[in-house]
Amino acid sequence: MQDMSHQTRQAERIPCTIEIAACTAVSSRVGRIVDLTRFGAQIRMSEPYEARARIFLELDGDYTWATVVWSEVDRIGVRFEAPLSSGSLHQRFETLRSKRTNPRPVHAAMPHRMFGRKAA
What we know:
This protein is of the alpha+beta class and 120 residues long. It has helices spanning 4-10, 87-101, and strands at 14-23, 28-36, 40-44, 54-59, 62-71, 75-80. It has one domain: Thrombin, subunit H (Beta Barrel). It is 18% helix and 38% strand. The N and C termini lie far apart (72 Å).
């Protein structure tokens, strides 16, 4: 049986830009999710929380509880208390995921002869 950390490291990671509020019981800080999985996220912020801090992420009035698993000068990594399955953050994840797996069709370039003057 694989442990949770292996499962989270193997999870589908989706690069993104999602503005959120990262909060504790006594403070709220602005952050930007730049990497999202069902199990956690990487968040860029000017004043990161310490590792092991329990926080919640606020997005569109919904809250997702998480624990800071690592902290650096300008970013943190968080693990969600439960995998995303509902709420605003889950909806964003699913939207990003569907765009990633179903990209817009790329239109074929017009043939070269269609540009410029018509050849005689």
